[in-house]
Amino acid sequence: MADAVAEQLADPGSVVLPAAHRQHLAHGLPGIALLHIERAAAGLGPWQRAHDWLAAAAREPLTSGPDSHPFYGAPAFAHALACAADHLPGAYRHALDTLDRQMAADARRRVDAAHHRIDAGRLPALGEFDTIRGLTGYGAYLLRRDPGALALRAVLGYCVRLTRPITQDGETLPGWWTETGPAGRPDERFPGGHANSGMAHGICGVLALLALTARNGIFVAGHGEALDRILTWLDHWQHDTGRGPAWPYWVTRAKLRAGRLTPSARRRPSWCYGTAGVARARQLAALALGDARRRLDAENALVAALTDPAQLEVTTDNGLCHGFAGLAHIAARAADDAHPSTSGPLRAVLPTLLAAVHPPDTDPVHAATMLIQDEEHGPGFLDGAAGIALALLATTTAAPPRSAWDACLLVA
Length: 412
Description:
Blueprint: H1 2-8, H2 29-41, H3 47-57, H4 74-85, H5 93-119, H6 126-129, H7 135-145, H8 150-162, E1 166-168, E2 171-173, E3 194-196, H9 203-215, H10 223-237, E4 239-240, E5 245-246, E6 250-252, H11 253-258, H12 275-289, H13 292-306, H14 309-313, H15 324-337, H16 340-348, H17 350-357, H18 364-373, H19 385-395
Antiparallel strand pairs: 1-2, 3-6, 4-5
Helix pairs in contact: 1-18, 1-19, 2-3, 2-4, 2-19, 4-5, 5-7, 5-8, 7-8, 7-9, 8-10, 9-10, 9-12, 12-13, 12-15, 13-15, 13-16, 15-16, 15-17, 15-19
């Protein structure tokens, strides 16, 4: 089915996207380019297709500066271009050098603004720090492109400071507490705001970035303490589903004051929110810290979530963000790093997850067509056909992704 998706997305001129989506990594041209880049890097397709999609993405001026973010505009294109350039020495050098400078400058400006906000005693917006729109996403790019960059160290220093408690109206809150709802806007369902746990918009993206940089030997002052503060927070809010541990998508002010959770409906264990993303972030942190017990706990939590019929039942789509393809990809990446006692069970869940994405008795060409033409999810990367095809490729080979397309998700 991955081959069929790629064939049907061979020509960028055949895909009609809303204007607002063209520059978007999640929904638009840069994300679809990643599929052809990965296939070319793996020897499964021609580099010309990858180039055609990159050229289409760059045909119109790219948004940069304050109106861009890691998944939109120049930063989104930079991620796709870097994935290709790694396998084509000398190709795209001038464009990528320009984008690297832009990313570093944007990151430094955002870090400076964030420190001014902290100095003023104000709470952050989700878009200040999260993986999709914020400094964690910039950190993921900088780690990939220039691990020794001062800009990356500035981002990490900010992440450390973000984890320190902040006092508002006499109440102590975690430093990543935001006054809005999970959508980043004021929400009457979240009086007093919330602390977000997710990989996409919450503190687990920060945890994953701090863990990945530590695993690469990159540390800043307070690095270990920041990892420990986030892990301690997650330890406190961990609860038992009856099949294994899970974590809330977010903690509201009422729950914070009560100090505990109330029973809630079973939720999907996705990358963006839920046990899969949290468990992978915790596993990466445990590996960085050399904490064998916490590593096994995280891996066992992931196995439990991915074998729990109740949690799989509420997983209702196939995409990377919150669907079966994302679960399969996380399981495969976690298995690569797992203890021998848990790597086997993690790999054992893959056939079930992949069958949910592409049932064995389904015609792959028809299935690809249906994915691409799906009005809600379409051909894109984060929710749609291109991302599903990438996950299928990654989980059916013995090697990690050749192009590191998933670096933007902070799962490896």
